[in-house]
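Researcher: Next entry in the queue.
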Amino acid sequence: PRRPPPPSPPPPPSPRLRPPQIETAPFAFVLNESRAWVEQHVPYFHSSDEDLNTAYWYRWRVFHLHLARAPKSQRTPGCDPKGCHVITEFLKKVPWSGPANTIVCPAGHHFAEARWVKDGRYAGDYARFWLRGAGWRKQYTFWPAHSVWRHSLLVDARPGAAGSLAHELLPALEANYRDWVRTHYHTGARCMFQSCHADGQENSATLDGCRPTINAVMFAEATAIAAAAAAAGNATLSAQFEEEAARWRGVVLERLWSEDLSFFTTLAQPPPKSLHAEIQWYRRKDSPTKGNSQSVQTYFGCLACPRGRACPPERGWPVGKLVPVRELSALASPWYFGAVPAAPAGRSRKFATAWAQLHDAKGFASPWGPRTTERRSQCYNFSNAAQCNWNGPVWPFEVSKAATALAELLQTHPPQPHAGIAAWEALMLTYARAHTRARAEGRAPPHVDEDLHPDDGYWITRRKLHISPYLPLSPPISPYLPL
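Model: Structure for this entry, 483 residues:
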């Protein structure tokens, strides 16, 4: 009998399915010494917009420059024996940083980028450093459970299963959550307190109290722990944290929503006694940080603000009242952390009316990105002697949260009249152009710094440092790493 003909060779793969070769030569001027590392570790990206392309590759160079290691002497279970991989906020040592020049404030953004790096040791070590190591994890608002769970959803075939980072760190994530509740829960107001400074938002116009940021974070933390516990087979713990998540969602939607503003805002409150007790404990020489109370709390109230000011009030906003000022962080956080439900549609639409402020010239809109405080407010750009202010300037830290929040809304909620794909695209392109076209004293773009003038397009902190005869001119390549 005749032999059957040999099988035909398989057709060549479609060009669309071939993994693109990373071609970074056009961006060699951006990547510089980081080019080889970037080509080995990060996803390829290209678009029809050159500002977006340049900003993308520049951010990865910045990420690479900020990779560091904790000292080998700080042994942390699960970390690289040479020391935990960490990510810094500033390239040079700053006085308010913790071990290895780390600061927890931007850590949520660091995790969001590190999860895309092919080598999982960076994200894994960084999480272990904060949750098991010497990191000052309560100095600023922090969302490790949300970050670790998002990491697991991206990289693990079975998110939260044995062997995953979420499974490994579940006990530490639960302990961290309970520790925050212990110190920052305001029993009288039944919500989480945070100062604006420890929220990473120096001189925020709404000042201190039960802020939408920290309470939305607690919803996300409880939701992530519930999901990780369910994946680990701990139904009891999962159910407990589902109840916790419902509690925080209720705080955000029912306590922090202003019908007068059609917006989320801060409920003014003094610090709880439990937080004062924690600060006193950390001032003791036998505390974990040997007397440094800034490892758990930075400042309260208005920083370097003059007496006799009208807005924000010198004695603070009336306790127990919602502050009548709209801030970008109160727009971004509820959707970024998923605290606003998609159903019922009518309720979703009610809360989404807040997004109209993104495009309103009297609200947040500006040529260089959304302002941190609404332009119409008497508190907008109020005078003070502080270097950094969240009372009007554009902060990439919060713009990145707003863009992510808007993406979450577009993907998970019914269509909204004030929040569409065109708004998201405009926000992202403006964010990219802030890197590639804004002015930085003594530097050519691309560049990123802490805060940007919303109308004139120069990096404010960079200018202050550049012209000051008292401060050395250091290269703050990237204080935050939002993408």
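Model: Confidence is low (pLDDT under 50) at residues 467-483.
Researcher: Noted, moving on.
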